[in-house]
C-alpha cells in the first residue's frame, strides 16, 4: 500500500527543520519511490554504520571461543548440530527483529529497518563491529546464507530471509512463515532439503503493548494459538531446522526509561505499558504469555522428528533495563525512541541468545548480563542444546568479572548514559519530531482499526479461536491451543 500524503508532507516538513541532522534524510528516503532509492539507502547504511560504531562503541567483550570444525559427516539429527554445520539463518518477528532504529541518531531514523544489525538475523560487516548470531556463525561457516545486510523494508533487497515486519503481532507470523517457506523452496541458493537452518522467532511485544485495548484479541491464549499455528507449519513443511523461540519481554520495563522524548514516544509505541492504571494488567498478561509459551515448547510437540526441534531461549524473561554506574537507565542500549534496541542493544541481545543456545534446557539464563563473556562450544560438547540432548547435561560457567546487580537490575560498569539533549538535538529537532509524531499517531490509529477489522474477519472465517478457553491435551499428552 502506498504511503499516505500526510506522512510524506510531514517528512518533508521535518527535513526542513532538521536538515543538518545526521539522519535528516531518512524520512525522505522512507517514502521515496525514485530509481535511486536503493543507492540512497546504501549510502545511509554506510554513513550511519561509521557513526554508530563511534557512538556506541559496541560491547566491551571479545569472542575468544575456539572454532570447532563441522561434523565429519553432515548430521542427520538436530540434536548433534554444531555451529559450523549451519548453512542458513532466517527470522520471523516484529520491529525489533526488523532492526528499527538500530543505527538511528534522531527520531526520524527510527522509521528505518536496519536489518543488517538485527541481533538474530543481521550479518552486516563482522563480529568486530556488530555482534549478531550470523556474524558469530560466519566465523564457523563463512558460506552462511540468509542473513540481512543493510537498510530496507519487508521482503526488499537486503532482507534476504528476514521476514520480520514492523508493527507485527503474533497473528502475523504465520503469513511470514509461509512467505519464508516459499522463498526457501524457490531460491536457487538454498538446498531446501539438505541445508541445516536456524530460524529465530521473536514476537509478542506489540500484542502486549495493545493488550489494554482488547484483552480477548491479545490474550495469552490467542497469542500462544498464533505461535503454535506458526510452529506447526514449520514442523510440517521444513526439514533440517533448529527453531529458536525467544521468550517475550516484560514490556512494562520501558516505563523506567523516562524523559520528555521517551514519554512521548512510549505513548505512541506502547501506551498500555506506561499507563499506571494498566501496568499491573499488562504485567500479569506477560507472565501468562511466558507460562503458556514455555508449556507449548516444552510439551514435546516438536520433538517427533530427528531433524526438527524448537527450543525456548529465555534470556529476556527477567531482563531489566540496564543501568549506568549512577543507577540511571543506560540509554546507549536504546534507539532515540527509547523503545527499540540500538546497535549496542542488538549486540547485547545477540550475545545473550548465543549463550542461551549453548546452555542446557533448564539451565538457561533468564536475563542478559551486560558485557557477559561468550559461552563456547567445546570438543566434548560441540552441539547446540536441545531438550533431548540436555538430559543429564552440565555446563561450566565462565566467571563474569565486574558485573554487579543493583536492586535486582543488571548494572553495566563503565557504560555511560546518553544525555537527552543528544537524542533531542536542537529545538528545531523537537519541533520536527512533534510534527512527525502527529502523523505517526494518525497512521497508527488507522492501522489499528484496519488491523482489527482484518483479524476479526480472519478469526470468524478461518482457524483462529477468539475465546480464551484453556488448552486441551492431544492424544500424545501435549497441549493443543488451536
What does this structure look like?
The chain is α/β, with parallel strands linked by helices and 482 residues long. The chain contains 14 helices and eight strands. It has helices spanning 5-17, 26-31, 37-56, 95-98, 133-140, 173-186, 205-209, 220-237, 260-269, 271-274, 279-298, 343-357, 420-424, 427-461, and strands at 88-93, 197-202, 241-246, 308-313, 404-406, 409-411, 472-473, 479-480. Strands 1-2-3-4 form a four-stranded parallel beta sheet, with helices on both faces. A two-stranded antiparallel sheet has the order 5-6. The radius of gyration is 21 Å and the shape is globular.
What labels would you give this structure?
single chain; 482 residues; alpha/beta; two-stranded antiparallel sheet; globular; disordered N terminus
Task: Set down the secondary structure blueprint.
Layout: H1 5-17, H2 26-31, H3 37-56, E1 88-93, H4 95-98, H5 133-140, H6 173-186, E2 197-202, H7 205-209, H8 220-237, E3 241-246, H9 260-269, H10 271-274, H11 279-298, E4 308-313, H12 343-357, E5 404-406, E6 409-411, H13 420-424, H14 427-461, E7 472-473, E8 479-480
Parallel strand pairs: 1-2, 2-3, 3-4
Antiparallel strand pairs: 5-6, 7-8
Helix pairs in contact: 1-14, 6-8, 8-11, 9-14
In N-to-C order, the SSE pattern is HHHEHHHEHHEHHHEHEEHHEE
Q: Work out the helicity level.
A: 25-40%
Which shape, going by the Cα principal axes?
A: globular
Give the terminus-to-terminus CA distance: 31 Å
Poorly predicted sequence stretches spanning 5 or more consecutive residues: 1-35, 50-57, 397-430, 454-473
How large a portion of the residues is in β-strands, by DSSP E?
Answer: 5-15%
Structural class: alpha/beta
Number of helices: 14
**Overall pLDDT metric:** 81
Total strands: 8
Largest sheet: 4 strands, parallel
- Major β-sheet strand ordering: 1-2-3-4
* Radius of gyration, CA atoms, in whole angstroms: 21 Å
